[in-house]
Backbone:
């Protein structure tokens, strides 16, 4: 059964382990259903999933899309670099 | 006289005074692990043979007087089962890796072994450190971890076993990991002390990767002083983990341990910020205990100021980064379908969904992370420490989804997510109890690489309180 955005936010915050979202972070989102639906089809094309598994993937992608929506609303300009820099000098084991 | 709840300092003194041998101490904790480990869902593998061999070696060193700068010599410990151990299964808490065996020890274990500590157990964890989105406590092939204060409630995740094992006196200390909350949450729910070090302070070579840009290893123990002692051993540069060299050059670990080893370190007055919104709407008992803790901090001379936290998308950035990196880290598990063998329903398909996070969104999250860093480092220009409740609620009951309980609680700005994005260190300490005999906690956060100030404040908080001395009555 798909969860609501609020339920999803609370679930992640509760888990604490890897993805503790604050519930407030996910409120007031825009409609992200078309993208989530399209991405579900991408996942289905890549992996073998039963119907119930596909439904859960779709629900999770919808939930993730709400998080991404919030990110997309944050203003960035061309010069804002990502927090990863390639180094030609860093030694790798 | 040692007890299951002795501090590291007490154990070290007993060993040096020959009140107990390392072999005796090791057998004592092995027996407790065997007696209580399964009921708490805290143990994956008891490493009896290795432990007794290491303990015998420690006893030889103790007898020979090779004790200088070795505060952990002869002392047993456990590790979250995501650290590679030569010849012993390393399961990552997940059914698909139940029989996985590495032929080397993780750097952290190497360091502890060289320090003379005795590995007694590989401890339970949420499968794959929770990276696929679990939403209830039953998310490990060993079953849910249970807090010793009330075994109907969760011990927290993803370092579920380290939290429970330390709290029940099954090990004097343990090593856990935190990507976003996995040390602080079990410390909070189990009433023990946990430290998340600065990103890059402790080598992750040999540790399961969930998120290369977020994963940290750190101690869970009885006290902040114990955690400081452990950090003094495990921190430092490791060429096998290139993220370490940038933050902690060689020799830094001994610098930190010089603070650790002082039983009554000089008290340093700190400017502490309380983030508005983090405690006002927390569970009532969490709020009350936090306010009492703030009074203690004031009585210690610290200056306290309430602040508004920068309004940035901490949660979404954290989620996007961890899920995207996690899907890549476990791509083989998705490709061959073994992800479906995971325990929690949400985990069985969560990785497949995460694999569809768009590259442009992942990179956006990393760009936002720069803004997060700028904003939070600016906060640390004006404040030494940031305080908040360790968790906004008591431990979650086992058998229900997280989102079905504590519905009335609002945790406010996500300190855990934001500080993990920053890579900043934190200490989480017990600060009282609430309903169902469950513990509450306070977290202090410091600027990256400021562990000495952080732990100094933690040590003094615990010198002024006794919450960390409480022991769960069902585990005498």
Residues:
């Amino acid at each position: 059964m798909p969860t609501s955005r609020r339920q999803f936010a609370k679930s992640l915050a509760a888990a604490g382990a890897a993805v503790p979202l604050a519930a407030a972070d996910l409120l007031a989102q825009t409609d992200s259903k078309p993208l989530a639906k399209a991405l579900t089809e991408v996942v289905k094309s890549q992996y073998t999933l039963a119907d119930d598994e596909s439904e859960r993937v779709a629900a999770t992608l919808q939930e993730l899309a709400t998080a991404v929506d919030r990110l997309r609303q944050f203003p960035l300009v061309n010069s804002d670099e990502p927090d990863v820099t390639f180094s030609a000098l860093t030694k790798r084991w | 006289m040692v007890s299951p709840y002795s501090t590291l300092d007490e154990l070290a003194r007993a060993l040096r005074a020959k009140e107990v041998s390392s072999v005796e101490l090791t057998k004592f904790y092995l027996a407790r692990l065997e007696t209580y480990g399964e009921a708490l869902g805290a143990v994956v593998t008891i490493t009896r043979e290795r432990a007794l061999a290491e303990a015998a070696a420690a006893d030889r060193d103790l007898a020979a007087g090779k004790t200088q700068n070795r505060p952990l010599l002869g002392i047993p410990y456990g590790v979250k089962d995501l650290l590679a151990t030569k010849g012993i299964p390393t399961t990552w808490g997940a059914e698909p890796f139940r029989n996985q065996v590495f032929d080397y020890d993780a750097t952290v274990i190497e360091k502890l072994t060289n320090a003379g500590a005795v590995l007694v157990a590989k401890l339970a964890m949420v499968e794959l450190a929770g990276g696929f989105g679990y939403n209830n406590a039953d998310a490990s092939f060993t079953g849910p971890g249970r807090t010793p204060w009330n075994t109907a409630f969760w011990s927290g995740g993803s370092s579920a076993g380290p939290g429970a094992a330390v709290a029940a006196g099954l090990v004097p200390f343990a090593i856990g990991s935190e990507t976003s909350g996995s040390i602080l949450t079990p410390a909070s729910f189990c009433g023990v002390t946990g430290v998340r070090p600065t990103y890059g302070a402790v080598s992750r070579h040999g540790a399961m990767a969930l998120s290369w840009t977020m994963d940290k290893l750190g101690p869970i123990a009885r006290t902040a002083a114990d955690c400081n002692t452990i950090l003094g051993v495990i921190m430092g540069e490791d060429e096998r983990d290139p993220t370490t060299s940038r933050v902690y050059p060689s020799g830094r670990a001994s610098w930190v341990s010089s603070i650790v080893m002082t039983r009554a370190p000089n008290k340093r007055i700190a400017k502490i910020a309380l983030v508005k919104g983090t405690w006002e709407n927390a569970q009532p008992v969490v709020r009350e205990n936090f306010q009492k803790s703030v009074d203690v901090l004031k009585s210690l001379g610290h200056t306290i100021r309430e602040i508004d936290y920068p309004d940035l998308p901490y949660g979404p950035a954290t989620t996007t980064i961890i899920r995207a990196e996690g899907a890549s880290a476990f791509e083989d598990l998705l490709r061959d379908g073994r992800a479906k063998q995971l325990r929690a329903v949400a985990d069985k398909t969560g990785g497949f969904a995460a694999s569809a996070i768009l590259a442009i969104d992942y990179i956006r999250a990393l760009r936002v992370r720069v803004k997060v860093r700028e904003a939070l480092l600016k906060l640390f220009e004006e404040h030494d420490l940031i305080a908040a409740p360790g968790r906004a609620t008591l431990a979650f009951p086992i058998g229900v989804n997280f989102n079905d309980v504590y519905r009335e609680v609002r945790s406010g700005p996500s300190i855990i997510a934001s500080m993990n994005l920053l890579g900043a260190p934190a200490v989480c300490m017990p600060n009282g109890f609430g309903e169902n005999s469950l513990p509450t906690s306070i977290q202090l956060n410091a600027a990256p690489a400021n562990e000495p100030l952080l732990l100094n404040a933690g040590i003094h908080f615990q010198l002024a309180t006794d919450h960390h001395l409480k022991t769960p009555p069902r585990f005498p």
The two ends of chain A are 45 Å apart (CA to CA).
